[in-house]
Amino acid sequence: MHSFYVMTDLHYFEHSLGAAGEAYEARSLTDQKCIAETGAILDAAFARIAQDSDTNIVIIPGDHTFNGEPESHAAVIAKLNALRALGKQVYVVSGNHDGDHEAYAFRDAEQFTIPNVTREELKALYHDFGPAQAIAQDELCYVVQLGEGLRLLGVNYAHDIAPHLPFILEQVAAAKRDGQRIIGMMHVPVLPGSPILTLPSDATIKGGAQVAAQLADAGLPLLFTGHMHMQSVTKTTTPQGGFFIDICTGSVVGGPAMVRKCAIDAAGRMTITSAPSVTDFDWDKNGMTAEEYFIWRFERKIKHELRKMPRVVQNMKLGTIATLLCFRAPKSLRKRRLIDACADIVRRVFYGDQSYTSETPEHIFLMKVLRRCRLLVRIAQKKLAPKNAIFADLPALVSALLGKDVKIDNHCVIDLNTGEIAPLEL
Question: Could you give the 3-state DSSP secondary structure of residue 179?
């Protein structure tokens, strides 16, 4: 039996760089992450992991810092060393926010740029957390032996990993020859955790679908990823019978603030459970629990973006919208504001396992709205579909985003031999 923790997107920001003041607060409105609070959150999260004497492996798929500040990296490494001193094996890869990224600090009403770490410097900084234990490596990737019969492939940040696929595929083949299972971690997902995430160019690696097919046919069953700050388990299969699963985990410091615990038994069944990264942390949360605080932060960001809509639209009640479209909204929805409903839907997409399935009032309501607006929907489809095929059927897209079918994002059992994913009853 092998067990390990997966935690990602630590986004630590050294408080001395100015995590307070007018400029910081303005920046904070646009972020689901809790940046000023990162030190308190990480200390609480690491303390919880340190208490688990049965699981001594921790893997972290990148974005260790806010934006690659040297001071932030130094503090993260100190925290990782403290975790190792307690007997934990820690393996990391870099993320896009860790090196060669514009870094900035805050002072009162001013936001100003500061020096950041380069990708070359990252190699030396985090050498002890993976590369030092490597049994094989190239300039981007490394492989370590996690235990008897199990290897871990770590792939450092690159939007395009095609140049490194020969090494990756070679290591998958070598593991097969040696009678070893191999799993991987990488910062940016290969597969989108939601249909809408096929739109942003940086939500997945370049050519993700093609890379996933190659990995599936080669026999790499899964990668643990981060970057998108969401809980998702996404699978693809190939005509040759191969399968590949992308397991994205939310940020430790922003909703959904989650950590996964995984266990692989002798038969190759991986059990995954997800739990809040912290149950509490040392911060004034205005009387909220940690969970409530993360939800408040997440929805504040979404509402900040939605406030670009006219105020009269933001504050419109769902009951009013239904009346304008000549149908009656369910009683449970009539007084809900549009802006609140939209924020809740977005949060559910990212939190996983919180779908508005086809029989829920919310799902039924939105499908009715689209049917009543069919002419506008057809015009939108005609305009948008040539740019991206996912817009060819807008009602189907919206239905999928709401979660027409029950998803398995947080707790599951994956058969590493067949790729079967089953829900885990807790």
Answer: coil
Element (DSSP H or E) covering residue 359? none
CA distance 228 to 13: 19
Tell me if residue 196 falls in helix, strand or coil.
helix
2-282+409-423 domain in CATH 3.60.21.10? yes
> Could you count the other beta carbons within 10 Å of the beta carbon of residue 240?
8
Which residue intervals of the chain bear CATH 3.60.21.10? 2-282+409-423
Q: What confidence tens digit (pLDDT) does each residue in 295-320 have? A: 999 999 999 999 988 999 899 999 99
Judge residue 237's burial from the number of C-beta atoms within 10 Å of its C-beta, 0-12 exposed, 13-18 middle, 19 or more buried: middle
Residue appearing with tokens 């986004």: 11
Residue 51, number of CB atoms within 10 A of its CB:
8
415: tokens are: 């058969």
Which of helix, strand or coil describes residue 3?
Answer: strand
pTM equals 0.95
